[in-house]
Input
Amino acid sequence: MRCVIARFPFDLIKGEVEQSMADIQPESVTGASVVIGPRTYPVKQVGEVITRQDRRDFTEFEVARALTRLGFVCRAAAAPTQPSALTDWSAEPV
Output
């Protein structure tokens, strides 16, 4: 499937993406993620491997859109469940 990531065209095939990620250990997920085989990878990690571009050159949305079109399950970044004391602007200064 042809897609554009960071203004560059790529011809991606689901099997090739799976093969590219087979020997790569997933990093910890802090943003959007994608399920490839039995593993869950950060979308930016997969984008870096399949495009050979720096992670700063593309967005999570671009890669997630391409991977979803290939048939992979992508998940959005999880929102924090509780605000921390450091981000609670209504608290009195210490």
